[in-house]
TrEMBL record:
InterPro entries cross-referenced by the UniProt entry: Flavin_Rdtase-like_dom (IPR002563), Split_barrel_FMN-bd (IPR012349)
Pfam family, one: Flavin_Reduct
Native organism: Rhodovulum bhavnagarense
Transmembrane segments: none
SMART domains hit by this protein: Flavin_Reduct
PANTHER family assigned: BLR2425 PROTEIN (PTHR43812), FLAVIN REDUCTASE LIKE DOMAIN-CONTAINING PROTEIN (PTHR43812:SF2)
Superkingdom of origin organism: Bacteria
Domain Flavin reductase like: 18-172
Cited Gene3D superfamilies: Electron Transport, Fmn-binding Protein, Chain A (2.30.110.10)
Any one GO molecular function term: oxidoreductase activity, acting on the CH-NH group of donors, NAD or NADP as acceptor
Protein's recorded name: Flavin reductase (DIM6/NTAB) family NADH-FMN oxidoreductase RutF
Length: 201
C-alpha cells in the first residue's frame, strides 16, 4: 500500500501514529503567570541533545480559550519553563486522566489526584511520584506547518530520579516499566532490555 497524506489513506483510522512507534510520553507540567498549574501528556516527545541536555515536545491541537494552541504551550510562552515527568506503567490511569480538554482554570494534578512537588531550578510543579523529572528552561518554540502545530524545545536545568530506581549506579527503567505510545488508542510497556555492542566498541 502507498498513499500520499494529502490524498488520504482510505483506512478506518490514520496509520501514521502506528508507523512511528513506540514513542516516549512527555507528561508536561507547566504553571501560568498567575500561578495556576497544568499537567498534560504529549507523545510527540523526545530528548534531542546531550551537551547541554535538551528535550522537545510538540503540541498539535488548539483550545478555544488559548489563541491557537493548548494550555501547555500558552503557559510556557508566559513563563519560559516547563517540567517533563516520566510516566511509569503504574501511573497510566492518572496520566490518561490528565489528557482531557479541561478549561484553563482546571488544575489537572488536583483533577486526577496526583501529588505535586516543587521543582528546584524553575518555578513549576512536578509529579512527585514520577520515576524521573526533567526541569527545563525554554530555548525556542517553532511553529510548524499546520494550524496548531508547535514544537517546544528546552534545556534541562535539573534532573530528579527516584532513588529506588537507581540500581548499582544505573537508572534501571525495568524497575518502573516506562509507558510508550503506540498508534490509535494503544500503548506499550518497556519491561525487558537487550544490549548491542557498536562495531567500534
Amino acid at each position: 500500500m502507498f498513499y500520499r497524506p494529502q490524498d488520504g489513506h482510505g483506512l478506518p483510522r490514520n496509520p501514521f501514529n502506528a508507523i512511528v512507534t513506540p514513542r516516549p510520553i512527555g507528561w508536561i507540567s507547566t504553571r501560568d503567570a498567575k500561578g495556576a498549574d497544568n499537567l498534560a501528556p504529549y507523545s510527540f516527545f523526545n530528548a534531542v541533545a546531550y551537551e547541554p541536555p535538551q528535550v522537545m515536545f510538540a503540541s498539535t491541537a488548539a483550545k478555544p480559550d488559548r489563541d491557537g494552541t493548548k494550555d501547555s504551550v500558552a503557559n510556557i510562552r508566559e513563563t519560559g519553563v516547563f517540567c517533563v515527568n516520566i510516566v511509569a506503567f503504574e501511573m497510566r490511569d492518572a496520566m490518561n486522566a490528565t489528557s482531557g480538554a479541561f478549561g484553563r482554570e482546571i488544575d489537572e494534578f488536583e483533577q486526577a489526584g496526583i501529588a505535586k512537588a516543587d521543582c528546584q531550578t524553575i518555578a513549576c510543579a512536578r509529579v512527585a511520584e514520577a520515576p524521573a523529572n526533567l526541569e527545563c528552561r525554554l530555548t525556542q518554540i517553532l511553529q510548524l506547518p499546520g494550524a496548531a502545530n508547535f514544537a517546544v524545545f528546552g534545556e534541562v536545568t535539573g534532573i530528579h530520579m527516584r532513588d529506588d530506581f537507581v540500581v548499582a549506579g544505573y537508572f534501571d527503567v525495568t524497575q518502573f516499566r516506562p509507558l510508550a505510545r503506540m498508534g490509535y488508542r494503544d500503548y506499550a510497556v518497556i519491561d525487558a532490555l537487550f544490549a548491542l555492542d557498536r562495531p567500534d566498541d
